[in-house]
Amino acid sequence: MGIGVFNIEKSYEGAVALNDVSMEIEDGAFVTLLGATGAGKTTLLRIMAGIDRPDKGRVFYDGKDVTDVPVQKRNISMVYQEFVNYPSMTIYENIASPLRVSKTRYSKTDIDKQVRYHAELLGLTAVLNHYPEEVSGGQKQRTAIARALIKDTRFIFLDEPLANLDYKLREELRGELKTLLQQKGGAVVYATPESVDALSMSTDVAYFEEGRLLQYGPLQEVYHNPAYVEVGAYFSYPTMNIMEADKVTEQGKTSLSISDEIRIDVTDFRDRLQVQQYLVGVRAYNLYTSSQNGRGLIPFTATVELAEELGSDTELHVRHQGLVLVVLMQEVARFPIGTEITGYLDPSRLFIFDRETRQLVLKTFS
Amino acid sequence: MARIELEGISHTYDPPSVPETQREYAVSNLDISWPDGSANALLGPSGCGKTTILNIISGLLQPTVGRVLVDGKDVTPLAPRERKIAQVFQFPVVYDSMNVFDNLAFPLRNQKVPEKAIGKKVRETAEILDLEDLLKARITRLNAADKQKISLGRSIIREDTAAVLLDEPLTVIDPKFKGGLRRKLREVQNRLKKTMVYVTHDQHEALTFADNVTIIKDGHLIQQGTPHELHSQPASPFIGYFIGSPGMNLLDCTLQDSALQFSDFHLPVSQEMKNKLGSAGNGLKFGIRPEVVDIATREQAGAVAFTVSVIEYTGAYRVLTCDRESSRIKARVSESIPVTEGDRIWVSFPEEKLNLFFNEKRIV
Amino acid sequence: MKNRGWLFVIPALAVLAISAFIPLMTVINYSLHYIFAGSTPTFVGFENYVEVLRDSAFLRALVRQLVFSMGILAVEVPLGICIALCLPKRGPGVAVCLVLLGIPLLIPFNVVGIIARVLTQSAVGVIPEFFALFNYSFNVAKDPVDAFMTIFLLDVWHWTPLVALLCYAGLQAIPDAYYQAARIDGASAWKTFRYVTLPKLRSVLIIGVLLRFMDSFKIYAEPLLLTGGGPGDATTFLSLHVARKAESYNLGYAGASSFIYLFIVIVFSYIFFQLMTHIGKGETK
What we know:
Chain A is α+β, with helices and mostly antiparallel strands. Chain A has helices spanning 41-49, 91-101, 108-121, 137-150, 167-183, 195-201, 219-224, 229-234, and strands at 2-12, 15-26, 30-34, 56-61, 64-65, 77-79, 155-159, 187-192, 204-209, 212-218, 240-250, 253-257, 263-265, 277-283, 287-288, 298-310, 313-320, 323-329, 340-345, 351-354, 360-363. In chain A, a hairpin with a 2-residue loop joins strand 17 (313-320) and strand 18. Chain B folds into two domains: 4-241, 3-Layer(aba) Sandwich (Rossmann fold), CATH 3.40.50.300; 248-362, CATH 2.40.50.140. Chain C is mainly alpha-helical. Chain C is globular. At the B-C interface, strand 6, helix 3 and helix 5 of B face helix 8 and helix 9 of C.
C-alpha cells in the first residue's frame, strides 16, 4: 500500500527534468523530496499527484496503475507554495469547499463540525468569517492546509508550502505540520529545497540532483550515511564543509593532508583507502572555536570573514589557507570581521569521500 | 557618510480633522540615533510601522511630530533628493533600458561627474559587488539577486550619500541566492563603513547584518541593542519569542510563598530571586530559552515531569516539544540524550537563566 | 501529442480557415486571372500585379496612405502619452476623465464621417463659418489640403483616446519605487520620463502603435462620406482605391491590389514590432 513510481522520465522543451526515477512510498511515511531549484523534485511531485504526465514510466497508488487517471479522479490533496484560496469565499467556506464539491454528500451539521475541528487544529477559529485578503500570509497558508486536511484523501502532496512565510511562522508551522499530517494515516510527500524542513519533519528523505534520484532512505540513514558527497554537502543543517585531501604515507603512518596545519591520521582505516585523492566532509557543528569540545582535536588558524546569526546560533565563516570553512557556535556571538581565531576540527567526526567517484568511502565514527 | 537621528518622531495617517484624542498613530515617540558608519537594523513583524519610519527618514513622508537629523542638521523639511539618503527597495529597481554600467553610472551622470571619473568609480563599485563581468550585460538577462546588487550599487556609488536604507531587500530573491546576497550586504557595509539601516521582519537577516538592532512593535520602539543583548536580555516576552530559534518558552505564573505557581506545577525560588521580584506577585510571565532547559530521563529532585510529544530533528540538536496537562515547553537538546516521542522526562529550569516579565517588561 | 489541450483550438481554427483562409485564397486566385463579371476568367500569371504597380493612381494612393498613417502615429502616440500623463492618478476625477476619453471610441466610423460632413458643409457647417472669420475660405469639396487635414484631425480626435487609455493603464502598473529611486538618484523630470516611464510603457506602446498603424491603413468610411475620396483623389486612401476597382468589376486588378495592400500592412507591422521590441534594450555600446 502506498505510492509507487517506476522509471519515470520527463523532459521540458528538450531539457531533462527527470531521468529514470523509481521510488516507493509506504503508508504512514512522510517523505521529503529534497534538492536545489531545478533538481526535479517539484516535477516528480506533480507527476505523483497526477498534475503532469510522465514521458515514460508508471505511477501506482496502492498497487493500481493510475498513470492515465486524471488528477480530479485521483482523490488527493495538494498544497502549493503560493497561498491558493478562493478570494470570494470566507475562510470558513474555503475550508468547507472540498466537502461541498465531494461526491459523498455531507449534511450541514457534518460540514460544520469538520470545518470547526480543522479550524481549531490550525488556529483559524477566530478568522473563520474573514475573507482571505483580510488575514495574514500564515493564516492564508493554514487555510490552504486545512482544505487539504479536511478532504478525505490518503495522499497529501505539498510543494514548498512554507517558502513564502516569515521565519517565525515557518518555525511554528514546521512543528505543527509534522503532527497534523501524520494523523491522517496515508502518505505525505513534501518537496522543499530546505534541509531543515526535511530534518525536522520527515521520516524518509529522497535527494535529487539534476533530475536524478541520488539517494532515498530513512531520514537518519541518509543524514548519517550520505551515499555521495553531493548528498552530504546539501543535506546538512547547517552546512557540511568539504575539503580536498591527499593521502600521505610516512613512517608506517597513513594520513590525509588537507593543509600544512590539518593532517588527519587515518592509519586505522588504511585498508579501505585505496586511492590517493579524497574529499573530507565535516559538519559545521563539528568544528569548534574552543578545545573544550573534545579530545584529540586538530587546531588550525583562521580569519573570520563573516558571522551569520541563525536563530540562536552563530555561523562563523572563516578562511583557512584559501579554504572557506563554516563553524557553528551554539550561541549568539559577535566576531568582528578579520579576527584571527584558532579553530578545532574533530577528527572523529569525518566523512571521507572518493574524489573521483564522489561516493562515501568511510566515516571516522559510527 | 553621516550620523542619522530621529527625534521624537510620531506619525499619523489620519487627517488633521480627526480630533487629537482619536488619532491612530502608525509610529509614536521614536528616538533613535544611528552613528556614522554603523550597520543597523529595524526589525519588527509585518505592519509594525517600519515602512512609515523608512519613508520619514528618506523624506517621502513628513512626520506629524518630530525631526530627522543628519549629522546634527535638521533635514525634516528637505525633499528626498536633498537629503542624500539612498534606498534599496524590496524588489530590485533597475533601469531596463540601460546596461549594467549605465545603471551604476546614472546617479553620477545626473551630478555631471566627468565621464572618466565615472568609469573609474563604476569599476570600483562593480568590483565590490562582484559585478565586473556583467558590466556590459543587458539588464533583462540578469537574475533578481544581481539586479538587487545593482540597486545597491547605485546607492553606494555617490560619495556624498549620507546613508543607505535597505527595505526588505531579500524578500523576492530566490532562496538559492539569498544566503550569498545576505553575506554580500554585510560584507559591503563592513568594507565601505557607510551608515546603513536594514529594515526587515526576518530576525535572521537583521541579526546577521547589524551590530545594532532596533525592534519595533505596533509603532513603538521596544528594544535597541546588539544581537547578543537582544538574545540574552529581551526587554519583553515578545522579543524573547521573536528573537532566537526556537523562541523563548513563555508561561504565566504567580509568586506565592517562595515558589512560582504555574497552572499545573510549581517551582521553588531562592530568597535572592524573591527579593528581585519584590512586590510583583501576580501576573508574572516566566521565560526560559529552549537551549538552557535541562532534561533528564530519570526522576530528579526539583525537576518537573513532562511527556515528549514531538521531536524535531535538526542536525546539530533536537527540539523536543514537552507537554503536561496545560503547560507546554520546548527544549533544545543534543543528539546524545536518548529520548523518543511519548517518553516521560524530567525538566529543570536553572534559576540564573530565568527571565521574568511583569507588565510586558523584563524584571529579572 | 500527449497534451490534449490543443483539441480545444480546433473549432477556432476551423472558423479562422473559413473566414480568413478561403477568402484569401479566392483573392489570390482572382489576382492571377483576367476576370470581369460575366466573362470567362483567363489565366494571366502576374500581369495584374504588374498593372497595379504601374498604375499611377494606385501608387499615389499608396504614398498618400503612408503619409497619412505615419502622420497619425507621429501625432496620436505622443499626444496619447501626454494625455495619459496629465490624467489624475486617483480620486473621483479618474472616472469622469475615463468616460470623457471613452466617448469618441464609442462612435461608429460612419457616424463620425457624417458628423464631419455636417460640420464642414460649406453652407451650414460651423467650421467654414469659423474660418470665414479669418477670411479663409474653408472648403473640403474644393481644397485638397482642407479635405486631407479634416480626415486627419478627425482620426486624431477619434482614436487618440485609445492610445491615451492604453498608456494610462500602463502608467498605473509602474510601481512607485521606480520613481522614488529616480528621485533619490537625482534624475531630472525628463530623465525620469526617458529611463523609467518610457521603458516601462514599452509593451503597451507596441500594442498601441500596431493597432493604430493597422487601423489607420484601413481608413475608409470617413473619406467616403466626407467627399467620396475627393476633391480629385486627395482623400482616396488605399482601401478606397481598391474598393473602387472592385466596384468597377475589374476583379483581377482588385484582387492583385488587395493582396499587395495586405502584404504592405504585414511588412510594416512586422518592421514596427521588431523595431519597438529591440530599441533601447540596454544593448552593449
